[in-house]
Amino acid sequence: MGTEVILVPTANMAPFSHVVRHTVPAMAANHGLAIAYANYCGSERDLTYVGGSLVVGPHGEVLAQAGDHPALLIADVPERDPARISTQAGDFRPLRA
User: Fold this and answer.
1) Which of 4-8, 62-66, 87-91, 93-97 has the lowest mean pLDDT?
2) pLDDT single digits (tens) 43-57
3) Which of 19, 40, 45, 90 could link 11 by a cystine bridge, Cβ 3.0 to 4.6 Å?
4) Secondary structure (H, E, C), the chain
């Protein structure tokens, strides 16, 4: 429907660092969209935020990633390759009552 990039401002904390490493790239590839995931870093009271902000391309490739400190990420997002986009939406059929 025209969306090319999803912007995700978040405050993901320990022990959920797998979200940055695995979930965000998988969701980008699954939806064929780039994701800019801006995650808070540092500590507040008893919470530790994992950082790891990243920009992921439409096929799940990490284009830029920060560590556990504040950073500015700049990335060129490539065009989607139609040969790598899921075609499963074409398999959906209307439900009949």
Assistant:
1) 87-91
2) 999 999 999 999 999
3) 40
4) CCCCEEEEEECCECCCCHHHHHHHHHHHHHHCCEEEEEECEEEECCEEEECCCEEECCCCCEEEECCCCCCCCCCCCCCCCHHHCCCHHHHCCCCCC
Sign of the Cα torsion 56, 22, 8, 73 reads negative
- Residue 48 makes CB contacts below 8 A (sequence gap 6+) with 13, 14, 42
